[in-house]
Each structure stands twice: as C-alpha cells, then as structure tokens.
Design a protein that fits this description.
This protein is 52% helix and 8% strand. By secondary structure, it is of the alpha+beta class. It has a four-stranded antiparallel sheet. It has a two-stranded antiparallel sheet with strand order 1-2. It has a two-stranded antiparallel ribbon with strand order 3-4.
C-alpha cells in the first residue's frame, strides 16, 4: 500500500476490512508484506504477519489495528518484529482465558512478568531480559496508543513493567559489540584475513568492515561496480545505508583504500558465475538451496566464530576471542578520534542523521579510559610500571582519613580530569595537552615512566615474558649475540613489571 495513502487513513476508523495491506486485505488473518520489503536477504516468513495464533477476535482486532497504525510510521520489518514479540503475551492470555485488552490491569502485567521468568525458550533456556523488555515494550505501546485512539484497551494508567527489564536487557553480547577490539587481537584478525583466510566471502567481509567501519548488513549489500574512481584517481565506495535514516535506505559514498579495492575485485571475480546464473548484482552470494545473498546473522553467528577458531585468535586470558562484527565499527571510529578527525567528518563518513549519533562512539572511548583510570587510582590497586610505586605512595597520602564514599568521589573526579591514552596492555599517563610525547612513534610502553599497567593485564605480560625468555635462550644457545642483546633490552623492563604484579597478586 502506498505510504502516503496509509498516512491519510484515520486509524481509529474501524471500517477497514476492505483496506489493502501489502498483498492482502485488512480482514485477512495473514498479511503478505513482501511487496513492501525490498531486501533480498529477508526470509519469506519474515515478510508475513500471521494473526491466526490469536485466540480471541477482540484481541486480534486490536493487534491488527495496532499493526496497521505502525505500518504508517515504521518499516514493515520492524512491525513484523513487534508482532513476534507480542506472541508471548497472547500465549499467556490464552492460558489464563483473557479475551480482551480491556481486561488487562497491573496485577495481570505483574503476573505475566513472573510467567515470563519461569518460561523456557525454544533454546532450552529462560527468556533473556532483552526479550522480556521488548515484549512488554510492545504491549505498553499498544495500550498507550490505543488509549489515545479509542481502541478497546484499558482506560487507567498502567505500571511500566518494561522498566524492570530495561537495565537487564543489555546482555554480554550486546555489551561486547560496543567495545573496541584490542590492538593485538585486531592485528591478528587482519593478518589472518589478508594472508591466510581461504573463504573469500569471510575474508572480504572482515577486511571491508575493518577498513571502512560499515555495518555488516551494509557490506553484504554491496553490488558489482560499487567502487568507481574520481577524476583525481581516488577510489570511493557506493553503499546503501538504512539504519541512519528514518525511511528508505539511501545511497552513500565513502573513500576507500587500496586494500578494500583489491578485496572487492577479488570478490567480484569469485562470485561472477553466481551473478550470471542468478541475475543478482550483489557481491556476497552463496549457493545453498539456490543462490542467495549472504545473510547478516549467518556471517555473525557462523562465519566469524569459525574464522576465530580456525586461526586460533585468543584474548588476553588465552580464550578464543568472542568477536562481534559491530566492533569493527567501534574500532574504526576510535581510530579516527585518536587521529583528531573532527566529529563532523566522521558523521559525514557514516551518514549519521545527527552529531549525537557520532558523539556516542566518542563517549564510549571516554568511558573506557575513565574505567581504566579508576582501576589504577583505586585504593590497594595492583599496578606496575617505572613510576607505579610513586603513584601508589601519593594516592595513599590522598586517601588517608577519607571514607569509602569520599575516595570514590575523588577517584571519579580525578579520572575525568586526566586526559590519557589507553594502550594494548595498560595506559599512558602522558597528558597530550602538555604537548607531544618525547618518544614520538618509538614508544614500546614498558620502558616509559608514563606507562602503568594493572593486574588485569598480568596474563599477557607473563605469557610475553615466557616467550621472550624462551627466544633469548634459543639465541644464546645458537650464539646469536646481537639478537640476544636486542631481546635482553626488552626483558630488563618487562621482568620487573611481571615480578611486581606477581608479588602484589600473591599478597595475603
């Protein structure tokens, strides 16, 4: 249905039965919205809203009107998602013989919250807080809009149960995707993607994301000929962005480096026969039950973990690194911020609607720095470095006679006032507002009085020391004096750091 006509319809007019919705009629129990969804990666089942599961005609009528109302404001895929989240509540209503939204009150919503916590999902686990949050959010929105529009919903104000789940809804995975990738891990990911990865689709997806900061959904939507050249000889990429705009996706252009250009050329050649056979223009094509565009969830949930496992890429604790594709975006923005690129230019690169969207990434970086500083400045912190003992002695004097609350306030304020740089295994206390560091680009961290590390990074330092000593022994046995002395120069600084952290960790 034409979006302009949708917006002219009075939603609270109940004479909608002959109204067309996508390829269906309002009165149908199944709405086919495929005509409204252009994405080739969306499953057919995700283009259909099925109301047949609703046991009560009165409940079904309100949900249909609510869905129709949403179609005038949101993307069809979002409307489909809200309907899916509401199924849990309808199942509860069926079990408890609730046949109208007008019967819903605070007692029922509270009981439904308990019901959700005791239910087991199809994966054999309790429903995640995020799922519960989205479910309640859909119900609350339906009732609130219904009260304004005059639908058959409760008249009284109801308690917002979704608030109870909102603080819990950020799962470990959601938190991780907003973290930058540690430099050492990022270096390994890029090295293996460029030189070792044999699957072209996985290789291309990782390289393009890491070098452009695009979302994986935008990368997988790239088409043949997406990298033209300017009259000056510079390459740029044509990409469709959607999540930054309220309505339809728009064409966006970003400059790209030679690595991305070469990767796209390799990808175009690899999928050329699939494009000819299918008629698709997209570059990320897979042949499974026909030829289809590679789906975002398949890339994130299958290809990335397999890539990490295949190349044995591990975190600071020796565990396989749990990579989320969105982390490439965070890394890319943080790198631009480190290079003092103005937020306005970063906003232009990502086609953000507002500067606030871009500034969010900047806040993430500052939060990370503040937390690292708190780890260093807190009482009895286990830190190491050339000036670590001086820092600890000065802090002890500052904390003397203060309550825990006063110390917390002091540490928080001090961490906010200090302008420092996070490093792969610690933090650099060189305040860039005082001028550039004397070491320039020659910094190797551990030999610098501005470098401080914490017990969090002990496993990394310990592992590096073991490897260093093993190499030194090998060079000494082979009589390679020059190589031995080069490693010994690093060992002189690394050994005291490891010993100091071990001593503090083992203190009783």
């Amino acid at each position: 249905m034409d979006k302009t006509k949708q917006q002219q319809v009075r939603i609270n007019d109940y004479h909608l039965h002959d109204t067309t919705v996508g390829n269906s009629k309002f009165q149908d129990d199944v709405w086919d919205l495929s005509i409204l969804i252009k994405s080739k990666t969306t499953k057919k089942s995700h283009k259909i809203i099925d109301f047949s599961y609703v046991h009560s005609e009165e409940l079904k009528e309100v949900i249909k009107i609510y869905s129709y109302y949403l179609l005038s404001k949101l993307k069809p895929q979002t409307v489909w998602s809200k309907n899916v989240k509401m199924r849990l509540f309808i199942s509860y209503c069926k079990e408890h013989s609730i046949n109208s939204f007008q019967e819903v009150n605070n007692a029922i919503l509270m009981d439904f919250a308990i019901y959700l916590k005791n239910q087991i999902s199809n994966h054999g686990k309790p429903f995640a807080p995020g799922t519960c949050y989205l479910c309640f959010q859909a119900i609350e929105e339906l009732i609130e809009v219904g009260q304004i529009e005059g639908w058959l919903v409760p008249n009284q104000n109801l308690t917002k149960i979704s608030v109870q789940f909102s603080k819990q809804k950020r799962t470990e995975e959601e938190d991780r995707k907003n973290q930058s990738i540690p430099p050492k891990v990022f270096s390994e990911i890029l090295k293996f993607a460029i030189h070792k990865e044999k699957n072209i689709l996985t290789k291309a997806g990782i390289i393009i994301q890491s070098q452009t900061g695009l979302r994986i959904s935008e990368v997988l939507g790239l088409k043949k000929g997406c990298i033209p050249k300017t009259s000056n000889g510079d390459y740029y990429m044509i990409v469709r962005t959607s999540k930054t705009e309220k309505d339809d996706s728009v064409t966006h252009k970003i400059f790209v480096n030679q690595l991305v250009v070469d990767t796209v050329k390799e990808l175009e050649k690899y999928t050329e026969h699939l494009r000819k056979e299918s008629g698709y223009e997209e570059l990320f094509l897979v042949q499974y039950n026909g030829i289809n565009v590679l789906k975002t969830n398949k890339f994130q949930e299958k290809r990335i973990p397999n890539f990490i496992k295949r190349h044995d890429i591990r975190d600071e604790n020796g565990q396989l690194y749990k990579l989320n594709s969105h982390q490439f975006r965070v890394n890319f923005v943080n790198d631009l911020i480190d290079k003092k690129i103005p937020l306005a230019f970063i906003m232009k690169h990502f086609n953000h609607v507002s500067i606030e969207m871009t500034a969010w990434y900047s806040r993430l970086k500052m939060e990370k720095i503040a937390q690292m500083m708190k780890d260093i400045l807190k009482p009895n912190s286990k830190i190491a470095g050339i000036n670590a003992s001086i820092i600890q002695r000065n802090l002890s004097e500052q904390f003397k006679g203060k309550t825990e609350e006063e110390i917390e306030t002091f540490v928080s304020q001090l961490s906010k006032n200090m302008y420092v740089n996070p490093l792969p295994t610690g933090v650099c206390l060189q305040d860039t507002r005082r001028g550039d560091c004397d070491n320039g680009d020659g910094c190797i961290f551990i030999n610098c009085p501005n470098y401080v590390t914490t017990e969090k990074y002990y496993p990394i330092h310990k592992r590096e020391l073991n490897l260093l000593e093993s190499e030194m022994k090998r060079y000494e046995n082979d009589g390679r004096v020059r190589e031995y002395q080069r490693l010994k120069a690093k060992w002189i600084y690394l050994k005291p750091i490891v010993d100091s952290l071990e001593e503090q960790i083992n203190e009783k």
